[in-house]
Amino acid sequence: MPALTASAVRKQIESGRVDAVYLLAGEDEIEKSALAAEFSTLVEEGLRAFNVERIHAGEYTTGDKLADGVAGIVDAVRTLPMMAPRRVVVVMQAEMVIAPRRESEAAAGAIERLEELVKNPDPTATLVLVASAVDKRSRVFRTLQKHATVVECGVLETAADAERWVQTRVAAAGAAIDPAAARLVAQRAGVDVRRLRADVERLLLYALGQKQITVEDVRAVTGPAALQDDWAMTNAIEAGETGEALRQLALIMDAGAPAEKVLGQLGWLVRAKFPALAPAQLQPAVDALFRTDVDLKRSAGEARILLERLVVELCGGKRAARRW
Question: Taking the model in full, what pTM does it have?
């Protein structure tokens, strides 16, 4: 069967005309989880307790556990819906059943049962398999390619997809964003998931402690992908302008500058400017530089995020000094 995008699957769900078996794959874990949850809307809210079942396959680590687990999946799918036209069965960590880690007679039997279910699904049920890393050489995956709907999550086609992606990512972080702000992020970044992810991470950091991310926050942090001034970031830090400093850092990183070069620039700023501009913040700034340098060297986190945290700390210290 042809592969579909997440956007196309959402249209199927909205129409109520869905396929029998789906495989949600791809690197975007948040998108997969959000899309899997949307299948529950096929069942009326008051009947979901009886007709929506969520199964975790992460514990299927032996042949016997796999056999029992697949038997449970088959039973869940074959069970008739109660007072509803359809049941929904969602299997998380489905890579454990698509490509089992251990080979045994029990595991082989389980694979055959799962393949039979995929080839002959129940017309009153929808099975949704959510997998992380999928071995595309496995028997089950080849069967799914032929008989199920494979969805590559993380692929965006339209501005609406990008806007929904932003809202989902912000909600997953426990924050909120104005619809107009999410729309502006999508307009500026387009369907480039890499840039969207970077913009949202900066927004979450910039708006930390706020109830909601606003259009003004987006305008402060995001911008056109063109670097005008190599020292714009340090100038923004001197002025205590966190949003502009984060935006300029993003442009520097997007242009391919190594993290070590950016850290060196920030080190120069602290050594050359802070003694006169923010003497009370000099030692905390030096400590933050040292910590970031150590974290970068031991790969204690993504370089971009470590530098963003440092920029926010330097700007915060500068704002405190200016207010004093």
Answer: 0.62
